[in-house]
């Protein structure tokens, strides 16, 4: 594979991981009834983080460590945009920085999923 194709694949997977991070938050009210996915007792957030990390890690096993960062970045940007433009008050919500700190341990779940996905792909001899 040429360097350009590898770079395009990595950009695509990073973008996909960021979109996945956004979708986790956008779909949370639909599946859980909660605005913030970690407020649900259903396990939606944990499962969605694990599955999204797994799928993207499976697709891009060479940089499995990078995809959870993309998932975190997508959530970070979504929460920032939601806090600034979709909240009732003006400006960034006071709790925004606290929420971003809470996102970090949750992203370890997507990191674990990404490593599992990459490991399974390597074991299946599909890694190129």
Shape: globular
Helical content band: over 70%
Subunit arrangement of the protein:
single chain
State the major sheet: none
Q: What is the end-to-end distance?
A: 9 Å
Strand content: under 5%
- The number of helical segments is 4
**What is the count of β-strands?**
0
Helix-strand string: HHHH
Q: What structural class do helix, strand and pairing data support?
A: mainly alpha
Rg calc: 16 Å
Stretches with pLDDT under 50, minimum 5 residues:
none
What value does the average pLDDT take? 86
The structural domain count equals 1
Explain what this protein looks like in three dimensions.
- It is a single chain.
- With 128 residues, the protein is an all-alpha fold.
- The protein has one domain.
- The chain is built from four helices and no strands.
- It starts with a helix and ends in a 5-residue tail after the last helix.
């Amino acid at each position: 594979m040429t360097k350009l194709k590898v770079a395009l694949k990595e950009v695509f997977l990073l973008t996909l991981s960021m979109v996945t991070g956004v979708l986790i938050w956008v779909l949370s009210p639909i599946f859980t009834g909660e605005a913030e996915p970690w407020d649900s007792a259903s396990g939606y957030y944990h499962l969605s983080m694990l599955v999204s990390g797994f799928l993207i890690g499976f697709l891009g096993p060479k940089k499995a460590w990078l995809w959870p960062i993309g998932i975190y970045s997508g959530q970070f940007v979504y929460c920032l945009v939601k806090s600034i433009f979709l909240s009732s008050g003006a400006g960034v919500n006071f709790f925004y920085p606290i929420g971003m700190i809470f996102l970090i341990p949750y992203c370890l779940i997507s990191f674990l999923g990404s490593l599992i996905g990459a490991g399974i792909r390597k074991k299946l001899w599909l890694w190129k």
